[in-house]
Design brief:
- With about 425 residues, this protein is α/β, with parallel strands linked by helices.
- The chain folds into two domains: about 250 residues, Aspartate Aminotransferase, domain 2 (3-Layer(aba) Sandwich); about 100 residues, Aspartate Aminotransferase, domain 1 (Alpha-Beta Complex).
- Helices cover about 40% and strands about 15% of the residues.
- It has a seven-stranded mixed β-sheet with strand order 2-10-9-8-5-3-4. A three-stranded antiparallel β-sheet has the order 11-12-14.
- α1 packs antiparallel against α8, α3 packs across α4 and α3 packs across α5.
- The longest helix has 29 residues.
- It is globular and about 80 Å long.
- About 45% of the residues are buried.
- The structure holds 4'-deoxy-4'-aminopyridoxal-5'-phosphate.
- 4'-deoxy-4'-aminopyridoxal-5'-phosphate binds next to α3.
- It is an enzyme of class 2 (transferase).
- It catalyses: 4-(phosphooxy)-L-threonine + 2-oxoglutarate = (R)-3-hydroxy-2-oxo-4-phosphooxybutanoate + L-glutamate; O-phospho-L-serine + 2-oxoglutarate = 3-phosphooxypyruvate + L-glutamate.
- Keywords: Amino-acid biosynthesis, Aminotransferase, Pyridoxal phosphate, Serine biosynthesis, Transferase.
- Belongs to the class-V pyridoxal-phosphate-dependent aminotransferase family. SerC subfamily.
């Protein structure tokens, strides 16, 4: 039964039991209306209330300033790999178009287009910091959409010998597109926590700070609401709900309002086509989603409700703007697991560098990566009710995901098993 199991899967991941209990009731009979949450209209007053409450809970938790918009979309984190390219390239182009018109004065549209073609060819760059398999995937999607010549991999953190991730080299080694007036790169992208490789940025990169920096995009799919975030440093933060926030089905995007109309303008589809740049699907178009309060098309309101319950629960536990309470617990759980792993260097080896160890996805090898030993380790864990510990298929090994709903008790049980296994090894 549920109370005897601790699940360390990387996502989908555990949810608070009380939220699931309420959810099962809400599925059948929401607010005693005789109808369930999956059955009501996404445009009903109830749905609107859910949407507003969930937004408010997130804004409260992370202290999101008023000049940021919170959007709910579908398509997962992967959908946003594409969306960031469509949206930010469009903004970059429109800025360049406005500048060209201003500088060229009254000339024909052909002349403007000619100049823009040249600027796109010479200057359109999307900066990616590749620190693990998810940022790698995001950069590959950008290359697929706009062409590899426009993607500047400012950092490829793979080990030169083994091709493996596990470190974040110093910023002095990154090759970001130089800043310029009117914007250098169309975006600077990083994945705050690499789920597969267990690499987490310990802090916000200094070289992405400042008003003249490219718009910063961060994928927080696997460390959302697990620590404090200074939203103002980012143009866009996104993540799927299915790890720390809720069940699979919605993606959350926090976007600076100045990137949305009426403040900013996006290039027209005609202009993008004329420049051989991609025109994205309307369901990934942030201005459209924002204008419609995330209800451009049918939003899975049940998923939004679950996320809202989880986040309101955290607000109730820790207080408004007090994500630091959750942060402390996340840190503590991770610390005790790493400490135990470090205590037995002959048995366990943590995969990533000490300075970038993820608090959320703890990746390690048993017996130097011996397949039989790791199989035995996992089987022993399962017997103790410790599930979901198998590493990602692409890297193997063990991965203990330590998301918000993993209890301190669960982490302690894992520590006890790690001790026990190591003593017997
Ligand atoms: N980014 C990160 C950091 C992830 O961990 C994942 C999924 N595990 C994704 C993106 C992709 O998300 P999705 O499966 O929702 O498309």
């Amino acid at each position: 039964a549920r109370e005897h199991v601790h699940y360390f899967g990387a996502g989908p991941a555990p949810l608070p039991t009380d939220v699931l209990e309420q959810a099962s009731r809400a599925l059948l009979n929401y607010k005693d209306k005789g109808i369930g949450l999956c059955e009501i209209s996404h445009r009903s007053p109830d749905a609107n209330e859910i949407l507003a409450n969930t937004k408010a809970a997130l804004a409260n938790l992370l202290d999101i300033p008023d000049d940021y918009e919170i959007l709910f979309l579908q398509g997962g984190g992967s959908g946003e790999f594409s969306a960031v390219v469509y949206n930010l390239v469009s903004i970059w182009v429109e800025k360049r178009r406005a500048r060209a018109e201003k500088e060229l004065g009254h000339v024909s549209q052909d002349k403007v287009l000619e100049r823009l073609r040249k600027e796109v060819e010479d200057e359109l760059k999307l900066d990616y910091l590749v620190t693990g398999s998810w940022s790698l995937k995001a950069s590959q999607e950008a290359a697929r959409l706009v062409g590899a010549q426009h993607v500047n991999v400012a950092l490829d953190a793979r080990d030169a010998n083994h091709g493996k991730f596990g470190r974040i080299p110093p910023e002095s080694e990154w090759r970001l597109t130089p800043r310029k007036q009117n914007g250098g790169a169309a975006l600077a992208y990083f994945c705050d926590n690499e789920t597969v490789d267990g690499v987490e940025f310990p802090f916000f990169p200094q070289s992405l700070e400042g008003d003249d920096a490219a718009p910063v995009v961060a994928d927080m799919s696997s460390n959302f609401i697990s620590r404090k975030v200074d939203a103002r440093k980012y143009a866009v933060i996104f993540g799927g709900a299915q790890k720390n926030i809720g069940n699979t089905g919605i993606t959350i995007v926090i976007v600076r309002k100045s990137l949305l109309p009426p403040v900013s303008k996006y290039a027209s589809a005609d202009l993008l086509r004329a420049l051989n740049l991609p025109v994205g699907p309307v369901v990934l178009d942030w201005p459209t989603i924002a204008k419609n309060n995330s209800l451009y098309n049918t939003l899975p309101i049940f998923d939004v409700w679950v996320a809202g319950q989880v986040m309101s629960g955290l607000v109730q536990t820790y207080g408004v703007k007090k994500i630091s309470g959750q942060e402390e617990i996340s840190n503590e759980k991770a610390k005790m697991i790493y400490k135990t792993l470090d205590k037995y260097p002959d048995v366990y080896s943590v995969v990533p560098d000490k300075s970038v160890r993820s608090r959320m996805n703890i990746c390690f090898r048993v017996g130097g990566g011996d397949a039989e030993k790791e199989k035995g380790f996992l089987a022993g864990a399962e017997k103790m009710g410790l599930l979901g510990l198998k590493g990602h298929r692409s890297v193997g090994g063990i991965r203990a995901s330590n998301y918000n709903a993993v209890s301190v008790e669960g982490a302690e049980k894992l520590v006890a098993y790690l001790e026990d296994y190591a003593e017997k090894a």
